[in-house]
Design a protein that fits this description.
It contains 13 helices and 10 strands. Helix 3 packs across helix 7 and helix 9 packs parallel to helix 13. The chain is an alpha/beta fold and 377 residues long. It has 2 domains: 222 residues, Type I PLP-dependent aspartate aminotransferase-like (Major domain) (Aspartate Aminotransferase, domain 2, 3-Layer(aba) Sandwich); 121 residues, Aspartate Aminotransferase, domain 1 (Alpha-Beta Complex). Strands 1-7-6-5-4-2-3 form a 7-stranded mixed β-sheet, with helices on both faces. Helices cover 37% and strands 13% of the residues. The chain is globular. The protein binds pyridoxal-5'-phosphate.
Length: 377
């Protein structure tokens, strides 16, 4: 696990103690790329792309997968297929980062920002109910940082109105939801990214999973230039070399999930009992994929703890990316609302790397920071 990759299983560097960039161990991608290049079939129409889609469908246990060229494309095409466009509204949580929210604008739909439940990432069902209008066509569920969300209460509200629930599972490959099943398979469709930082990484890329045959067909049609039959579409096809990489790497996803869970266990064990720091609550029966290990600081301790992690070379998203509720982004000021739970969550969470390329020293460094900063002053 900790020496998986000769490129990065190197020395411990105290100036940059915990690299957050994950280099997956080789899974034969070079051979696969050689085969694709040799075949001369590099486009999205190559057999390898269909084979990748089939393998993904098997892994997730769904009827249909459509491979596309990014997670953003997956979200955009799924929203379009669900009917999002000018004059419609899409509900999304205030915890959404820009890549979740931009596709709503790309559709020309109006984003309607909803609060999350206290200390969690699930859509607050009351706020969902309050913000549904006759123009609402979809809501986005977001297992951010790979942490499971219990959106069953929100889905009940949406189902009553016949509104689609679309999961932005771009960070959540292999996340287990409460009630069983993987993130991405709970709603009408699940959208994934395979950007280089994701658990399944092809550089750029993405895919949509769905059991809804009609929706799947619409997404396929839209992302493949309307099948060149005269209907409107875009070219969001995934190129064959990227599908070849994805196909090889998919085979190692399950063991990667186990490695991440084991590192997260080590980090969790470093949390002092009764301190102001705990893991972000996980709904019963669910499991994160540990895209990041996420800790939650008690109110009143969050600023000190975040600064302490930043000083230790482990800056939380609030410091590193200025992560805040969506409506604090200038582009989303016109859709401003007040979401106290999302505001608290953005300020109180600490995201830590838990990828299997971390050296023992890097894990030890992170664990020591957790123990130190998790003491009650
Ligand atoms: C939560 C979330 N949604 C959407 C995206 C968009 O994916 P991509 O970068 O593949 O377009 C990303 C990735 O950056 C993401 O993390």
């Amino acid at each position: 696990m900790t020496t998986s990759n000769p490129v990065t299983a190197a020395r411990f560097d105290a100036t940059r103690p915990v690299p957050d960039r994950f280099f997956p161990a080789p899974t034969g991608e070079l051979d696969a790329l050689g085969e694709v290049l040799g075949s001369g079939r590099l486009s999205g129409g190559a057999e390898i792309v269909a084979a990748y889609e089939q393998a993904l469908a098997g892994w997730f246990g769904v009827r249909r997968v459509i491979a596309v060229n990014s997670g953003s494309s997956a979200l955009h095409a799924t929203l379009v297929a669900a009917g999002a466009g000018p004059g419609t509204e899409v509900l999304l949580p205030a915890t959404a980062p820009l890549p979740t929210a931009l596709p709503v604008l790309t559709c020309g739909a109006t984003p309607v920002i909803v609060d999350v439940v206290p200390d969690g990432l699930a859509l607050a069902p009351d706020d969902v109910a309050a913000k549904i209008t006759g123009r609402t066509v979809a809501a986005i569920s977001l297992p951010l940082w790979g942490y499971p969300v219990d959106d069953r209460p929100a889905k009940q509200v949406l189902d009553r109105e016949g509104i689609a629930l679309i999961e932005d599972a771009c960070q959540a490959h292999g996340t287990r939801l409460p009630g069983g099943g993987y993130a991405g398979t709970f709603g009408t469709a699940g959208c994934f990214s395979t950007h280089e930082r994701k658990l399944l990484a092809t550089g750029e890329g993405g895919f949509v999973v769905t059991d809804d045959a009609e929706l799947g067909e619409k997404i396929d049609f839209y992302t493949h230039l309307g099948h060149l039959r005269g209907g409107h579409g875009v070219n969001y096809k995934l190129a064959a070399p990227l599908a070849a990489i994805g196909l090889r790497r998919l085979a190692a996803l399950t063991s990667q999930l186990q490695d991440r869970a084991s590192i997260a266990g080590t980090l969790r064990a470093a949390l002092p009992d009764g301190g102001p720091l705990s893991e972000l609550p996980i709904p019963d029966g669910a499991a994160p994929n540990y895209y990041s290990m996420v800790l939650l600081a008690e109110p009143g301790h969050a600023t000190r703890i975040a600064a302490g992690f930043a000083e230790a070379g482990l800056p939380p998203d609030s410091i590193r990316f200025g992560y805040r509720p969506l409506y604090e982004q200038p582009l989303f000021h016109p859709y401003a609302t007040t979401c106290p739970n999302a505001e608290a969550l953005a300020a109180r969470t600490v995201q830590l790397p838990a990828h299997p390329d971390l050296t023992r020293d890097a894990i030890g460094w992170t664990a020591a920071a957790i123990t130190r900063l998790g003491q009650r002053p």
